[in-house]
Amino acid sequence: MSKRMIAAVAATAVAAGMAMTQAASAQDVKVGLILPYTGVGAELAQQMDRGIEQYLKLNAAAVKPYNITIIKRDSKAPDGAAAKVDAQELLTQDKVDVLAGWVYSPDAIASAPVVNAGKKLAVIMNAGTSFITNLSPYYVRTSFTLWQSSYVMGEQAAKYLHAKTAVVAYTDYPPGKDALDAFKYAFEHEGGKVIDAIPSGGPGATPDFTPFFQRAKDEHPDVLFVFVPAGDQATAVVKTYGALGMRAAGIKLIGTGDVVQDIKLQAMGDAAVGLITAHHYNADLDNPQNKAFVAAWKKAYGADSTPDFTAVGAYDGIAAIVHAVQATKGKMDGDAAVKSLLGWKFTSPQGPIMIDPETRDIVMNEYLDEVVKGSDGKLHEKVLLTVPNVKDQCKALAIGPCAPKK
Ligand code: PHB
Known about the structure:
By secondary structure, the protein is α/β, with parallel strands linked by helices.
C-alpha cells in the first residue's frame, strides 16, 4: 500500500470514528445533579431524586430518542463549599451537558463562578434567593423565589386576614432575608406594620425556637410570619407555636409553604390546623397533572408517602432539561439550551408555569392555603385563593439586591 493510500484509509477511519462519537453523543445526555444526599437536607434530596424519576417515568415518550444519564454529587452541608467542587468536577471530569439541583442558596451562590466558566445550562431546582439568577446567564430556575411566596403572603396578611401588625421570624441567611424584605414590603404597602424582625438561627441544625417565639408573643402582633428552610425546622416551628400557647394569645401563625412541607404535615399535629401559608404547590392541589403525579408517587413509594414542593421543583426542572435537549437536538450548547427555555411553558403538577424570558426565573401561581383536618382524620391544604402568574417581585420591582447597579 502506498503512503498516500494509508493516509486516505486512516482519514476515513478517523471520519467514521468521529461520526460514531457524534451519533453517540447526540443520543446520550449527561445531567450532573448536585443535591445534599447527606446531612440536614438529605430528605429533600430524596424528594427531588424521586421527582426526577417520576417525570422520566410518566413522560418517557417526551424524552425519546435521547438517553438521560444522571450523575449525582453530594453537596453536604448548606455552606456552598462542597457544591462548588461538585460543579467543577461534573463539568471538567464527567463532562456533563447540563448541571442541575441546588437545594440551598449558599450552594448556588458559591457555584455561580464555576457555572459561568463552564458555559453549560444550569437548572436551579430549589434554591430560592432572588438574586442568584443574576449571578450567571446560564442559571435558569424552575423552583421559586421567596420574593414570590413572601410577597403574596404579605399582601394577603393585610387584605385577606386583615392583620394590622406582624412580627417576622426568619432563618438568618440569604433566602430568609428575602422572605423578610418581601413580606415587609408587601404588608406595609397594604397598610400593615412589621413591628419586629427576629433572626432565628441558620439553615443547618434546628434551633430551639422558644426564645424567638417568646419574644414575638410578648409583642402581641396580629400575625407571626415565619420562614425556615423546609425540613425538620418546619416541624419545630409549629410545635413551638403550639407549646407557647400563641394561638390562645390571639397570634395567628402564617408563613411561606416551606413551613408546611407536605412530608412534614402529618407530624405537626393539631397545632398546624388553621395555619395560613402562601406557596406554589401542595400535594392536595386539584388538577389532572397533580392527581396523576401523586397517584404515581404513592404507587412507587408507598401509600403514606407524598410529593412536596421540592419534588415538583425537580420534576419541572428535568422537564425543562428535556425541552432543551429536544430543542438543541441533543447538542446542549449552553447558550442555545438557555435560549430554548426563555418563555418556555409547561403544565406542571403545580399548575401552568413559564420561564420569564427576561429573568430566567419561573412565573407561576401562588396559592393562599389553610391547613385543615379532613374527614380522613389527616391534615390537608385547602386553597383559599389563587394569585395567578406571579413573577419574582424583587426583579419586577427592581429593589434591594435586585436594583440596577449604579
Ligand atoms: C434556600 O436555601 O434557598 C432554600 C432552602 C429550603 C427552602 C427554601 C429555600 O425550603
